Structures are given as C-alpha cells and as structure tokens.
C-alpha cells in the first residue's frame, strides 16, 4: 500500500458499477459508473467532504488552501481565484510557457545522447518553471532547485501518512521519515512566505495569481487574505499543478515513442501549423490532433488516478444508501480502463477523441480533471501548457526509453512510472536520432 494504492483495489472496480468493500476495517464504496458518479459528485456534492486519509497527507504542507478546505472557506477561495484561470489569462501565459520549453530544449541540447536521465524529473522542472511564472511571475530570488527538492522530499513521505491514516494510526504517531517530511514542508512554506514578503515590500501588487490573492477580499467582511492563507494557496497550486502536468507530458512522450504512427501524425500537424507561441498564442487551439493524443494519454495514465470523499449524510445511490461517514472512492484509473465504457480499453488510440465520437461520450466516463464543483481549476492551464511544451520539443528531439516496455504505473497520490522514466535524448536528424 505504501508503494502503490492502486495495487490494493479489488478487481471488480474494472468491471462493476458499484463495489462496496471493507478495506482495513472501513467501509469503502468504489463508484465506477458514469451515471452514478454524476449523481454523487453533482447532485449530492453537498454531502461530500474531504477525506481524512488525503488530508493527513496534504494539510501539513498545504494548510487550508482551496484543495484541502470545505464549505464556506473553500467557496470563498474558489471564487477568489477563478478569474485567474479564465481562457484569456491562460492565453497570456503562452509566451512564458514557450520560454520554459525553450529552457528545457537548452537543457536537452547539452545532454549527451548516451547519458540516461529521468524524463519525469526533467518535465517536473519544466512544469515548475511554468507554474511559478503563472503564480509569482517567476520571482527571480527564489532558489528553485532547493524549493523543488523540498517538495519532492515531502511528497516522498505522503504515502506513509496515508497508509497510517488508512490503518487507523493516530496522526501524533510518527511514521518513518516524519522529521524529514516536516522539515521539507516548513522549507517549502518559508520559500513561499519570502516571496509574499518581497511582493508586499515592493508595494506592487502584480497581475499574476499572487497579485490576485493579495487583492482578494471576503465579499461579506471585506477582509483580505492573511499571509498564511496566501502561502497555503500558492503551495496548493504548485502541488496540484506541477507534478500532474509533468506526468501527463512524461507518459505522453513515452506513448508517442511506442506508437511511431501517432508520433508521425503529431509531427505533421506541428509542421503544418508552424506554431508561433510568442506572436500568436491562439495557435495552440489549432493543435487538434496533439490535444487528442494528450487526452488519450491521460485516459490510460490519469496523473490524478483517484478521487476520494467522505459522506457527511446518507446518500441514495443505485437503489442502496451509502451511509454517512463512508469513504467514497472514484478510481479514475479503473474507470478509464473499463471495457464496457472503452472498447479495446488497453489500446492507445487518440482517434477516440476525434471531434465526432468524443462529443457523444458520457461526460463522466472520462475524468482526468475530476468533475462537479471541485473539478480541477487548472485544467485549461495544464492542457495549454502540455500542448506548448510538446509542440516546442517534439520536432527537434527524439526520445529513447531505456526500458523496452513502459514502467508499471504506481500511485503516490499521483500516478508515477515506477522507478522513473529513464531515457536518452537525441536531436532528430542527427546520427543518433
Ligand atoms: C494534467 C494536469 C492536471 C491534472 C490531471 C489535474 C487533476 C485534478 C483533479 C482530478 C482534481 C480533482 C480532485 C478532487 O476532486 O478531489 C484537481 C483539482 C485541482 N487542481 Fe488540478 N490537475 C492538473 C493540473 C492542475 C494545474 C496546472 C493547477 C493549477 C495551477 C491545478 C490546480 C488544482 C486545484 C487548485 C484543485 C482543487 C480544486 C478544488 O477543490 O476546488 N491542477 N486536479
């Protein structure tokens, strides 16, 4: 369980609509039918709260930001930041995304074609650059290496926190590497607090997400957010947005390598469109097939493979009642691999998302970004970013994975390639390409 939570799911989640189990002494209801998911996440959204297991993993680092809060506190924060994720705001970030992709390209051009590296780590750096640009305009005083290391260290301790919570160990009992995790959380928070302090001292509020948080007022009391709440949210956006997007890119690049005919179509599309991300950010919308590839990649390898909630009152579902206090799991990874929803479910086929069939598909059969009121606020940002990065790098570089078959996916809150994604890289058209 510490290694990967998907390994303890019952097999029935890949075929049945509703599976009730006693997992480690708790009633856990897995919901994998699109109609029932809709009923739960939309019609009974008011009966769902954050679940203790996930809270134990996230709250020590993220405090009570938008991801970890419920009720009025969540609503206020969601309303406050929503406008920063409007399509026009995302479009304004396209040149910065392209700049981050260009820095990645520079990194890659310095690499020897014989020296393997972990593509996931590399993509995390690219995604971190982009999310920092969106949040804090890439504050130049931040030590990005140290910050990245602290985040990674903290994430490395979260499965212990979740496993302890699942077996009912109280939160005051220390788990392995507890102290290291606590130090890493404190270091990440201190780095963000320093950015907030620098911005306050500068006297310029700014137009990035930090600027919006600084300017936000409670609509009822007019009170601004205090610094701790701002730090909670900055870290929340970084935590929710950087590893997930990096994973989407990592799995997609691996799938493209394994399916040269799909890669050819993507390269052809990019060649025809000749995207100019600086002069014409709207060109992202013309990468139609590349977008289909990303969507299909996130079907097979959804970066966030599980949504968990606790019911706060009895919820009628499919002729039965889910009791108050139950743990409700929506195993997105399994939902996306159900044969009855996805014929030839294990096959990578981006044409599933071609405009015709995709339009007919049930909304709740495909949920890489969740659904209902708590749907991912960064979905548009993530898709745009991934398209810009792919279209900027693919035409120049060819990737060679070290392992013949893709690594096993393992769940550590997110869906990671077990052991990383070791690759070498060569310029297209070179003798190594
Ligand atoms: C491919 C990339 C991404 C994936 C697959 C993804 C997936 C998800 C999913 C499944 C949820 C719902 C979780 C739940 O219901 O419990 C979620 C929520 C969230 N995501 Fe994303 N996400 C991605 C990128 C981003 C980015 C780039 C940002 C921001 C910069 C972001 C910020 C958030 C936030 C703040 C929430 C919580 C929303 C709320 O509770 O109101 N995500 N994400």
TrEMBL record:
The keyword Metal-binding applies. InterPro entries: Cyt_P450, Cyt_P450_CS, Cyt_P450_E_grp-I, Cyt_P450_sf, Cytochrome_P450_Monoox. One of its GO terms (molecular function) is iron ion binding. Coiled coil: none annotated. The keyword Oxidoreductase applies. Its cofactor is heme. Keywords: Heme, Iron, Metal-binding, Monooxygenase, Oxidoreductase. Heme binds at residue 376. Belongs to the cytochrome P450 family. This is Cytochrome P450. It comes from Lichenibacterium ramalinae.
């Amino acid at each position: 369980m510490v290694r990967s939570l998907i390994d303890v799911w019952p097999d029935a989640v890949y075929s049945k609509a509703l599976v009730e189990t006693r997992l480690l002494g708790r009633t856990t209801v897995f919901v994998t039918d699109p109609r029932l998911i809709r009923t739960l996440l939309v019609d009974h959204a008011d009966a769902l709260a954050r679940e203790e297991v996930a809270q134990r993993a996230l709250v020590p680092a993220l405090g009570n930001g938008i991801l970890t809060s419920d009720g009025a506190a969540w609503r206020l924060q969601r309303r406050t930041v929503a406008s920063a994720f409007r399509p026009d705001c995302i479009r304004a970030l396209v040149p910065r995304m392209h700049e981050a992709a260009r820095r990645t390209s520079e990194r890659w051009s310095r690499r020897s074609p014989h020296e393997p590296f972990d593509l996931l780590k590399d993509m995390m750096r690219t995604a971190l650059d982009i999310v920092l640009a969106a949040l804090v305009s890439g504050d130049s005083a931040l030590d990005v290496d140290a910050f990245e290391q602290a985040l990674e260290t903290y994430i490395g301790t979260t499965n212990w926190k979740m496993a302890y919570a699942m077996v009912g160990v109280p939160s005051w009992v220390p788990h392995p590497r507890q102290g290291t995790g606590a130090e890493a959380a404190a270091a990440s928070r201190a780095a963000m607090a320093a950015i907030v302090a620098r911005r306050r001292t500068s006297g310029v509020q700014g137009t990035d997400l930090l600027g919006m948080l600084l300017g936000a007022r409670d609509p009822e009391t007019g009170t601004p957010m205090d610094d701790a709440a701002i730090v909670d949210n900055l870290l929340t956006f970084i935590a929710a947005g950087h590893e997930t997007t990096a994973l989407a890119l990592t799995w997609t690049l691996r799938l493209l390598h394994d399916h040269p005919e799909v890669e050819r179509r993507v390269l052809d599309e990019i060649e025809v469109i000749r995207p100019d991300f600086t002069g014409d950010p709207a060109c992202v919308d013309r990468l139609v097939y590349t977008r289909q590839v990303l969507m299909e990649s996130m079907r097979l390898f959804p970066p966030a493979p599980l949504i968990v909630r606790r019911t706060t009152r009895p919820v009628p579902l499919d002729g039965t009642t889910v009791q108050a206090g139950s743990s409700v799991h929506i195993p997105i990874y399994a939902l996306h691999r159900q044969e009855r929803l996805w014929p030839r479910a294990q096959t990578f086929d981006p044409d599933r998302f071609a405009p015709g069939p995709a339009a007919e598909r049930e909304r709740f059969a495909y949920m890489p970004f969740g659904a209902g009121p708590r749907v991912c606020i960064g979905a548009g940002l993530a898709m745009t970013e991934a398209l810009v990065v792919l279209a900027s790098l693919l035409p120049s570089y060819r990737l060679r994975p070290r392992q013949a078959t893709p690594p096993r996916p393992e769940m550590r809150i997110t869906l990671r390639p077990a052991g990383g994604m070791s690759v070498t890289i060569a310029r297209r058209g070179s003798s190594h390409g």
